[in-house]
Amino acid sequence: xxxxxxxxxxxxxxxxxxxxxxxxxxxxxxxxxxxxxxxxxxxxxxxxxxxxxxxxxxxxxxxxxxxxxxxxxxxxxxxxxxxxxxxxxxxxxxxxxxxxxxxxxxxxxxxxxxxxxxxxxxxxxxxxxxxxxxxxxxxxxxxxxxxxxxxxxxxxxxxxxxxxxxxxxxxxxxxxxxxxxxxxxxxxx
Length: 189
Fold this sequence. Notes:
Elements: H1 2-15, E1 23-32, E2 38-41, E3 47-52, E4 60-65, E5 69-73, E6 82-83, E7 86-87, E8 92-94, E9 102-104, E10 118-126, E11 131-139, E12 142-149, E13 156-158, H2 164-188
Antiparallel strand pairs: 1-12, 2-3, 3-4, 5-6, 5-9, 5-10, 7-10, 8-13, 10-11, 11-12
């Protein structure tokens, strides 16, 4: 019985790991761009610059270089379109058929609407073999890193961040399951 239980746990843990992970993660350690812009080059002159817009509710501003384009919202929300951040608690993906309807280049840095909270700024760039999709993980005037798909034409997914109440429910469920299994083992012994 114990072997079946351990095999089930291993299948759950290993089943969630992709066979070929092609996602590149670049950690910036929460670097602040409050006083100085932060630029990252994804290769081939594809640059994303994140700077402080000076607006309290929308402190982030982005500009692009090369073929890099930022996920944006247009009509009916904004005219002209402007970059947007995506809240991390929803889960989803950036890429073909993903969450953002359009990607645009910005030479002059427009502000990212409502970027005061933790959010993701989606982007795509082309190194000559098709668009690669990714996102910047930001909160107010801090940049925590980038994640992007190294395989062109493939969406990059982001997981929903569970609320504290969900964590409590999950932990209590594991506790009850553990107690039930422990009592079952004690009875059979």
